[in-house]
Design a protein that fits this description.
By secondary structure, the protein is α/β, with parallel strands linked by helices. It has one domain: P-loop containing nucleotide triphosphate hydrolases (Rossmann fold). The chain has 12 helices and 8 strands. An 8-stranded mixed sheet has the order 3-4-2-5-1-6-7-8, with helices on both faces. Strand 6, helix 7 and strand 7 form a beta-alpha-beta unit. The longest helix has 16 residues. The radius of gyration is 17 Å and the shape is globular.
Length: 265
Protein backbone atom coordinates (compact mmCIF):
# COMPACT_ATOMS: atom_id res chain seq x y z
CA UNK A 1 0.00 0.00 0.00
CA UNK A 2 1.29 3.43 -0.94
CA UNK A 3 -1.03 6.37 -0.54
CA UNK A 4 -1.87 8.71 -3.37
CA UNK A 5 -1.40 12.30 -2.19
CA UNK A 6 -4.10 14.60 -3.56
CA UNK A 7 -4.06 18.34 -2.92
CA UNK A 8 -7.35 20.19 -3.22
CA UNK A 9 -6.68 23.80 -4.16
CA UNK A 10 -8.38 26.96 -5.39
CA UNK A 11 -7.36 30.40 -6.48
CA UNK A 12 -10.17 32.21 -4.73
CA UNK A 13 -11.35 31.71 -1.17
CA UNK A 14 -14.92 30.72 -0.38
CA UNK A 15 -15.48 28.39 -3.32
CA UNK A 16 -16.01 25.28 -1.14
CA UNK A 17 -12.55 23.75 -1.14
CA UNK A 18 -12.52 22.67 2.51
CA UNK A 19 -16.03 21.29 2.18
CA UNK A 20 -14.88 19.28 -0.84
CA UNK A 21 -11.95 17.82 1.13
CA UNK A 22 -14.20 16.71 4.00
CA UNK A 23 -16.80 15.19 1.70
CA UNK A 24 -14.30 13.35 -0.49
CA UNK A 25 -12.52 12.01 2.58
CA UNK A 26 -15.75 10.62 4.05
CA UNK A 27 -16.80 9.20 0.68
CA UNK A 28 -13.47 7.42 0.25
CA UNK A 29 -13.58 6.11 3.83
CA UNK A 30 -17.12 4.83 3.31
CA UNK A 31 -15.78 2.88 0.32
CA UNK A 32 -13.36 1.15 2.68
CA UNK A 33 -10.28 3.23 1.92
CA UNK A 34 -7.78 4.32 4.55
CA UNK A 35 -7.66 8.11 4.43
CA UNK A 36 -5.75 10.91 6.14
CA UNK A 37 -6.76 14.56 5.73
CA UNK A 38 -4.16 17.26 6.35
CA UNK A 39 -5.30 20.83 6.93
CA UNK A 40 -2.63 22.91 5.21
CA UNK A 41 -4.19 26.28 6.05
CA UNK A 42 -1.90 27.28 8.89
CA UNK A 43 -3.46 30.04 11.01
CA UNK A 44 -6.94 29.68 9.52
CA UNK A 45 -7.92 26.08 10.12
CA UNK A 46 -11.48 25.03 9.33
CA UNK A 47 -11.33 21.42 8.20
CA UNK A 48 -11.72 20.21 11.79
CA UNK A 49 -15.02 22.11 12.11
CA UNK A 50 -16.46 20.79 8.84
CA UNK A 51 -15.55 17.24 9.91
CA UNK A 52 -16.97 17.75 13.41
CA UNK A 53 -13.63 17.11 15.13
CA UNK A 54 -12.78 20.54 16.55
CA UNK A 55 -13.18 19.42 20.18
CA UNK A 56 -10.68 16.59 19.83
CA UNK A 57 -7.60 18.59 18.86
CA UNK A 58 -4.58 18.22 21.14
CA UNK A 59 -1.66 18.50 18.70
CA UNK A 60 -1.37 19.89 15.16
CA UNK A 61 0.92 19.61 12.17
CA UNK A 62 3.35 22.24 13.49
CA UNK A 63 3.71 20.22 16.70
CA UNK A 64 4.72 17.24 14.53
CA UNK A 65 7.23 19.26 12.54
CA UNK A 66 8.78 20.92 15.58
CA UNK A 67 9.05 17.65 17.48
CA UNK A 68 6.53 18.25 20.27
CA UNK A 69 4.62 15.10 19.39
CA UNK A 70 4.85 12.02 17.25
CA UNK A 71 2.92 11.83 14.00
CA UNK A 72 0.30 9.41 15.35
CA UNK A 73 -0.36 11.59 18.40
CA UNK A 74 -1.60 14.44 16.21
CA UNK A 75 -3.87 12.25 14.10
CA UNK A 76 -7.54 12.52 15.11
CA UNK A 77 -9.69 9.51 14.31
CA UNK A 78 -13.09 10.28 12.78
CA UNK A 79 -16.15 9.57 14.94
CA UNK A 80 -17.82 7.30 12.38
CA UNK A 81 -15.07 5.92 10.16
CA UNK A 82 -12.20 4.13 11.96
CA UNK A 83 -9.87 4.42 8.95
CA UNK A 84 -10.35 8.18 8.48
CA UNK A 85 -8.00 10.60 10.25
CA UNK A 86 -7.39 14.34 10.41
CA UNK A 87 -4.12 16.16 11.04
CA UNK A 88 -5.23 19.69 11.95
CA UNK A 89 -3.48 22.94 11.11
CA UNK A 90 -1.99 25.17 13.80
CA UNK A 91 -4.27 28.07 14.65
CA UNK A 92 -1.76 30.34 16.37
CA UNK A 93 1.12 30.18 13.90
CA UNK A 94 1.67 31.51 10.39
CA UNK A 95 2.38 29.65 7.18
CA UNK A 96 6.16 30.08 7.55
CA UNK A 97 6.06 27.46 10.34
CA UNK A 98 5.79 24.77 7.64
CA UNK A 99 8.03 24.32 4.61
CA UNK A 100 7.45 22.29 1.44
CA UNK A 101 10.03 19.75 2.63
CA UNK A 102 8.21 19.44 5.96
CA UNK A 103 4.96 18.63 4.23
CA UNK A 104 6.68 16.13 1.95
CA UNK A 105 8.27 14.39 4.94
CA UNK A 106 4.95 14.10 6.78
CA UNK A 107 3.25 12.67 3.68
CA UNK A 108 6.08 10.22 3.04
CA UNK A 109 5.80 8.96 6.62
CA UNK A 110 2.07 8.35 6.06
CA UNK A 111 2.21 6.84 2.58
CA UNK A 112 2.94 3.18 3.51
CA UNK A 113 -0.14 2.80 5.72
CA UNK A 114 -2.91 4.63 3.84
CA UNK A 115 -4.67 4.68 0.49
CA UNK A 116 -5.28 8.42 0.18
CA UNK A 117 -3.82 11.55 1.75
CA UNK A 118 -5.96 14.61 1.07
CA UNK A 119 -4.37 18.02 1.64
CA UNK A 120 -6.58 21.08 2.10
CA UNK A 121 -4.60 23.90 0.54
CA UNK A 122 -5.13 27.50 1.58
CA UNK A 123 -6.63 29.71 -1.11
CA UNK A 124 -4.26 31.76 -3.23
CA UNK A 125 -0.76 31.12 -4.51
CA UNK A 126 1.49 32.09 -1.60
CA UNK A 127 3.60 30.04 0.83
CA UNK A 128 0.77 27.85 2.10
CA UNK A 129 -0.12 26.84 -1.45
CA UNK A 130 3.50 25.90 -2.19
CA UNK A 131 3.55 23.77 0.97
CA UNK A 132 0.32 22.02 0.05
CA UNK A 133 1.37 21.01 -3.47
CA UNK A 134 4.90 19.93 -2.58
CA UNK A 135 4.07 16.27 -1.98
CA UNK A 136 1.09 16.05 -4.33
CA UNK A 137 0.78 13.25 -6.84
CA UNK A 138 -2.36 14.90 -8.13
CA UNK A 139 -4.10 18.27 -7.71
CA UNK A 140 -7.80 19.04 -7.88
CA UNK A 141 -8.79 22.65 -8.46
CA UNK A 142 -12.14 23.78 -7.07
CA UNK A 143 -13.95 26.74 -8.57
CA UNK A 144 -17.42 28.21 -8.67
CA UNK A 145 -18.96 29.19 -12.03
CA UNK A 146 -18.13 32.87 -11.42
CA UNK A 147 -15.82 34.92 -13.61
CA UNK A 148 -13.53 36.02 -10.74
CA UNK A 149 -13.24 32.50 -9.34
CA UNK A 150 -12.51 31.00 -12.75
CA UNK A 151 -9.87 33.63 -13.45
CA UNK A 152 -8.11 32.84 -10.17
CA UNK A 153 -8.39 29.11 -10.87
CA UNK A 154 -6.73 29.67 -14.25
CA UNK A 155 -3.79 31.32 -12.46
CA UNK A 156 -3.45 28.27 -10.20
CA UNK A 157 -3.55 25.92 -13.20
CA UNK A 158 -0.71 27.87 -14.82
CA UNK A 159 1.44 27.70 -11.68
CA UNK A 160 0.87 23.97 -11.28
CA UNK A 161 1.95 23.34 -14.84
CA UNK A 162 5.01 25.57 -14.37
CA UNK A 163 5.89 23.62 -11.20
CA UNK A 164 5.63 20.39 -13.25
CA UNK A 165 2.78 19.07 -11.12
CA UNK A 166 0.93 18.06 -14.24
CA UNK A 167 -2.45 19.27 -15.38
CA UNK A 168 -4.93 19.37 -12.49
CA UNK A 169 -8.51 18.14 -12.60
CA UNK A 170 -11.49 20.39 -12.06
CA UNK A 171 -14.29 20.27 -9.50
CA UNK A 172 -16.97 22.74 -10.50
CA UNK A 173 -18.85 23.59 -7.32
CA UNK A 174 -22.23 25.20 -6.64
CA UNK A 175 -23.56 25.05 -10.18
CA UNK A 176 -27.15 26.25 -10.44
CA UNK A 177 -28.78 24.89 -13.61
CA UNK A 178 -31.64 27.41 -13.45
CA UNK A 179 -29.21 30.36 -13.50
CA UNK A 180 -27.23 28.74 -16.31
CA UNK A 181 -30.42 28.31 -18.31
CA UNK A 182 -31.19 32.02 -18.01
CA UNK A 183 -27.60 33.00 -18.86
CA UNK A 184 -27.04 34.37 -15.34
CA UNK A 185 -24.23 31.93 -14.53
CA UNK A 186 -21.36 30.41 -16.48
CA UNK A 187 -22.16 26.92 -17.70
CA UNK A 188 -19.90 23.94 -17.09
CA UNK A 189 -18.99 24.04 -20.78
CA UNK A 190 -17.99 27.72 -20.46
CA UNK A 191 -15.71 26.98 -17.50
CA UNK A 192 -14.11 23.99 -19.19
CA UNK A 193 -13.42 26.04 -22.31
CA UNK A 194 -11.83 28.79 -20.23
CA UNK A 195 -9.61 26.52 -18.12
CA UNK A 196 -8.81 23.77 -20.62
CA UNK A 197 -8.45 21.04 -17.98
CA UNK A 198 -10.19 17.75 -17.37
CA UNK A 199 -13.42 17.70 -15.38
CA UNK A 200 -13.69 15.26 -12.49
CA UNK A 201 -16.98 16.43 -11.04
CA UNK A 202 -19.81 18.95 -10.97
CA UNK A 203 -21.43 19.65 -7.60
CA UNK A 204 -24.83 21.32 -7.83
CA UNK A 205 -25.97 24.12 -5.53
CA UNK A 206 -27.53 22.45 -2.47
CA UNK A 207 -28.45 24.09 0.83
CA UNK A 208 -27.76 20.76 2.57
CA UNK A 209 -24.03 21.42 2.06
CA UNK A 210 -24.06 24.45 4.36
CA UNK A 211 -26.26 22.72 6.91
CA UNK A 212 -23.94 19.70 6.98
CA UNK A 213 -20.82 21.86 7.29
CA UNK A 214 -22.28 23.79 10.20
CA UNK A 215 -23.19 20.54 11.94
CA UNK A 216 -19.85 18.87 11.28
CA UNK A 217 -21.60 16.21 9.19
CA UNK A 218 -20.47 16.25 5.54
CA UNK A 219 -23.35 16.17 3.06
CA UNK A 220 -21.93 13.08 1.39
CA UNK A 221 -23.60 11.07 4.18
CA UNK A 222 -27.03 12.29 3.02
CA UNK A 223 -28.38 9.70 0.60
CA UNK A 224 -30.96 12.02 -0.96
CA UNK A 225 -28.62 14.99 -1.46
CA UNK A 226 -27.65 15.71 -5.07
CA UNK A 227 -24.44 17.37 -3.89
CA UNK A 228 -23.70 14.36 -1.72
CA UNK A 229 -24.13 12.07 -4.72
CA UNK A 230 -21.82 14.29 -6.76
CA UNK A 231 -19.08 14.01 -4.12
CA UNK A 232 -19.55 10.23 -3.91
CA UNK A 233 -19.15 10.05 -7.68
CA UNK A 234 -15.95 12.11 -7.59
CA UNK A 235 -14.54 9.81 -4.92
CA UNK A 236 -15.23 6.80 -7.13
CA UNK A 237 -13.49 8.50 -10.05
CA UNK A 238 -10.47 9.10 -7.82
CA UNK A 239 -10.43 5.35 -7.27
CA UNK A 240 -10.32 4.76 -11.01
CA UNK A 241 -13.97 3.92 -11.58
CA UNK A 242 -15.77 5.16 -14.69
CA UNK A 243 -18.83 6.92 -13.28
CA UNK A 244 -21.11 8.90 -15.61
CA UNK A 245 -21.85 12.52 -14.79
CA UNK A 246 -25.24 13.25 -13.27
CA UNK A 247 -27.77 15.12 -15.32
CA UNK A 248 -28.54 18.10 -13.12
CA UNK A 249 -31.32 19.13 -15.46
CA UNK A 250 -32.60 17.89 -18.77
CA UNK A 251 -30.50 20.09 -21.04
CA UNK A 252 -29.99 17.85 -24.05
CA UNK A 253 -26.93 18.79 -26.02
CA UNK A 254 -25.28 20.78 -23.23
CA UNK A 255 -24.83 17.73 -21.00
CA UNK A 256 -23.74 15.62 -23.92
CA UNK A 257 -21.09 18.28 -24.51
CA UNK A 258 -20.03 18.14 -20.86
CA UNK A 259 -19.64 14.37 -21.04
CA UNK A 260 -17.45 14.85 -24.09
CA UNK A 261 -15.41 17.67 -22.60
CA UNK A 262 -14.93 15.81 -19.31
CA UNK A 263 -12.92 13.15 -21.06
CA UNK A 264 -10.63 15.41 -22.99
CA UNK A 265 -6.97 15.86 -22.12
Amino acid sequence: MAAQVITISSGKGGVGKTTAVANLAVALASDGRKVVCIDGDIGLRNLDVVMGLENRIVYDIVDIIEGRCKLRQAMIRDKHYPDLYLIPAAQTRDKSAVSPSDMTRVCNDLRPDYDFILIDSPAGIERGFRNAIAAADRVLVVTNPEVSAVRDADRVVGILEAEEKGTPSLILNRLNPALVKHNDMLSAEDVLDLLGIQLIGIVPEDEAVIIGSNRGTPVVTEVKSRAGQAFRNIAKRLQGQAVPFMELEQQGGLWQSIQRLAGRK
